[in-house]
């Protein structure tokens, strides 16, 4: 039976707790054996309530007690008045259809090669020039990268072209491409991952295949560009 006594601020408190932990709702649910979308769907309002037999698992996912989850505990969580949260699907960046390509073929696509498990080597030479996507119209230095490897399947598959906005700052719950040095200065080791959270020293990242979250030192990956879309590869 579903618990009907959940307090109305539970969604906001849970979202604030996840932000405090720098943990995505997908990761939190998976860590305790819940369905991957269970917590996210409740916070987003897709799920009306949390079953009482799931309280303990959800609490553990948030490093809480059940009392904390129900609002009767002692763990302080500061929630901004009117705070709402919308956690995105763990899906690829926007697929760009052909009718959203504009202008001449002035958009560079760079080739990549396998650089070890979960990594790529992005080459400095342009592989091909394609029509510019609308979402990157007027963005200087924007570019695309040919995806290799399967660490981000189903979001990105080998042969897809990731579309990159190099001037957007890092944002939580977005896809990013990281480089070990400025790719304009020579072939660079890189990886495309989901950015779960970050601070001045580290990046918390998520990949989908195999599913895992992990942290990297920002000093090791000083270049972080946001991936804003993709062209699907021919399959």
Automatic annotation (TrEMBL):
Residue span, Peptidase S24/S26A/S26B/S26C domain: 135-211
Any one Pfam family match given in the protein's UniProt record, by short name: Peptidase_S24
GO molecular function annotation: DNA binding
Coiled-coil residues: none
Database matches in InterPro entries: Lambda_DNA-bd_dom_sf, LexA-like, LexA/Signal_pep-like_sf, Peptidase_S24_S26A/B/C
Family matches, as SUPFAM superfamilies: lambda repressor-like DNA-binding domains, LexA/Signal peptidase
CDD domains in UniProt: S24_LexA-like (cd06529)
Protein name per the record: Helix-turn-helix transcriptional regulator
Taxonomic source organism: Bradyrhizobium quebecense
